[in-house]
Design brief:
The protein has one domain: Arp2/3 complex 21 kDa subunit ARPC3, CATH 1.10.1760. About 65% of the residues lie in helices and about 5% in strands. It contains 8 helices and 2 strands. A hairpin with a 2-residue loop joins strand 1 and strand 2 (about 65). Helix 1 (about 10-30) packs across helix 4 (about 80-95) and helix 5 packs antiparallel against helix 6.
């Protein structure tokens, strides 16, 4: 999914850079409502895991590569705003230090994976969670649905961007076929990995999983977070 330098023309790259900058600015504000002293370390762990997972790249044709995105996983574990920041940091480090994704295409990659991947995954997770039983065991399968849908969604947006500003001599049909076909397969793997990781964390510390807060019983949430022990907290 990492887009290299020169794959899209300058106007398209500038436009996606502006979208990415606006998304990061909003995420910096939104993350304040998602993070506290307990969950801040989780954000670092999520970013590290996504960084490691994205290092496993393989070509999918038409000059692009495929790998796990991790957007839905980050959104479910630490919240969509914080997930956007995690993916943006990972992509920035990869572009600047690892030559993975172009520097001029950094805004495009953040838009595709840090915005589309995270938020499509989050809304799909919320939709699946709404129809599943309201219990912690439902968080992992709902996260798998979000992960599966987020990957082809990002690939579809990239195909649209290439249709508008693609510069390489590859037909739009070839790009669309390579991206959508392979990323549908990658989505299955992403769903499995996301479900396993989320299920493992929910089994041990469900209070640290942002997506599990709505289904965690209130007394258990208060005990694990220490809300009842804080001065001025309601009984």
């Amino acid at each position: 999914m990492h887009v290299p330098d020169g794959f899209l023309d300058a106007p398209t790259s500038v436009a996606t850079g502006a979208v990415a900058a606006a998304g990061i600015a909003l995420a910096l504000r939104g993350a304040r409502r998602e993070l506290d002293d307990r969950t801040a370390p989780m954000a670092g762990l999520v970013a590290t895991f996504v960084f490691a997972a994205q290092m496993v790249n393989f070509p999918v044709g038409a000059g692009t590569s495929g790998h796990l995105l991790g957007g839905a996983l980050a959104a479910v574990l630490v919240g969509p705003w914080t997930g956007t920041l995690c993916l943006s940091v990972v992509l920035g480090v990869q572009a600047l230090l690892m030559a993975d994704g172009g520097i001029t295409a950094l805004g495009t990659n953040i838009t595709l994976m840090g915005l589309v991947g995270v938020w499509v995954g989050w809304f799909a997770f919320r939709g699946a969670a709404a129809v599943l039983p309201k219990r912690p065991a439902s968080v992992a399968p709902a996260a798998a649905v979000g992960a599966f849908l987020s990957v082809p969604a990002a690939a579809l947006v990239f195909t649209g961007l290439f249709a508008v500003g693609g510069t390489v001599p590859v037909s739009l049909g070839a790009v669309a076929a390579a991206m959508l076909t392979w990323h549908a397969v990658i989505g299955v793997g992403e769903a499995v990995v996301t479900a396993l990781v989320v299920a493992a964390v929910v089994a041990v510390r469900p209070d640290l999983v942002h997506g599990a807060r709505a289904v965690l019983p209130a007394p258990e949430l208060e005990i694990r977070t220490g809300a009842a022990a804080r001065p001025g907290a309601p009984a």
